[in-house]
Amino acid sequence: MMKRIIPGAAMLYGSLLLAGCAASQKNTGSEQLPSLKEVFSKDFAIGTALNAAQIEEKDPGAAKLVPQQFNMATPENIMKAEVIHPRWNEYNFTLADKLIEYGKKHDIKINGHTLIWHSQLPAFARQIQSVDSFRLFFTNHINTVAGRYSGKVFSWDVVNEALNEDGSMRKSIFLSKLGDGFVTEAFRLAQTASPNTELYYNDYNNEQPAKRAGCIALIKKVQAAGVRIDGVGIQGHWHVGKVPLKDIEESILQYAALGVKVMFTELDIEVLPRNFQGAEVSQRMQNTPAMNPYTNGLPDSVQQQLADDYEALFKLFLKHKDKITRVTFWGVDDGQSWLNGWPIRGRTNYPLLFDRQFKPKPAFFKVIGTKTKS
Ligand code: G3I
User: Using CA atoms, how far apart are residues 163 and 174, in angstroms rounded to an integer?
Assistant: First the structure.
């Protein structure tokens, strides 16, 4: 059973951590922690991305922490086409099936990620020449994968990252083979294959005005075709000290006005130098020592700024909790984060609420404090 700790103690504990006090050493078990999923239970679901080791419960720190803290999970990679559909007539459901079992065991709802994405496509799909064959791949993929997990996943990111920064359609293989109706078509197929599953469009930087306008146009197009789209995911890959709160708030309002649910689906706040915004996986930067400054730990000033940024975000989420249904962090702990490897490999990043030992960071207590202080 999880022991609850009183709010004042949580805040005190947070302050002690911030001061770098040895009191943090006393927290030997996360069972004494407040639980994100419990604290925000009346507001929105709290999710995390899970990698293969975490799904298989091979990672003891995560195995303990995840069921305590989260009530939704998104597979970080294992439901992507290159893993789940490696060859034309071959599907690999092993890990995805394990994820479904993991979710049942721990009462964690699963958001499938993702049916249609230009990245992490299997090699055979990239090589398909004819439009008819490509359409068949597209249709078979959605029917088979969404069909298998119908009634087993809570929701799907049906289409991921179909837009450019200026709001136009990304020149992906889906656009070039199928034309710009592919998004609507993907939702239509998913709706038929998995009728009781929530269906979402997911992207990064879609809180930025131009991309947001493109995203709104896309959602309206699906709706105008009489096809169901239940929600929009703002991924939320942001940078410390530069979280675009005004754009985020404006986006929550504008998306909700379309009648769709709003979610923050891949939240992390990067602390290392980067000269562009977003999560375009093909973008890379050159490695120099200056680009990896915190290999021995995060300075207090940055830790504080990270905590303040998370606090400001969660205050905003709570203000609009009637429109927001889920907030998912892109990973359980800093050690897992994809931001240790992108856009430069081998860096030491600190973007999440739990550190490499699965201990809560000051940001965790600031997030909890947005509820307990109000
Ligand atoms: O599976 C191979 C493994 O066989 C190989 O030994 C190893 C060596 O590099 O690579 C492994 O593949 C890696 C894969 O993650 C699984 O761990 C890829 O290199 C790596 O590029 C891939 O990164 C993932 C990235 O998507 C790829 O596009 C990240 O883990 C994942 O967090 C990230 O997630 C995306 C969301 O799906 C969509 N939004 C942006 C977000 C962040 O990029």
Answer: 12
E strand spans, the chain: 45-50, 72-75, 109-116, 155-160, 198-203, 231-234, 237-239, 261-270, 324-329
Contact 256, 286 (CB under 8 A): no
178 lines ligand 1 (CB under 6 A): no
Alpha helix stretches (DSSP H) within 278-343: 300-319
Instruction: Check 76, 161, 207, 270 and give the catalytic one.
Output: 161
Contacts of 360 by beta carbon, 8 Å cutoff, 6+ apart: 17, 27, 30, 33, 353, 354
Q: Which residue has the tokens 């597209």?
A: 138
- pTM for the model stands at 0.92
Indicate if 57 belongs to the active site.
Answer: no
Amino acid type, 292: N
Judge: domain 34-373, CATH 3.20.20.80: yes
Query: pLDDT tens across 56-65, in order?
Result: 999 999 999 9
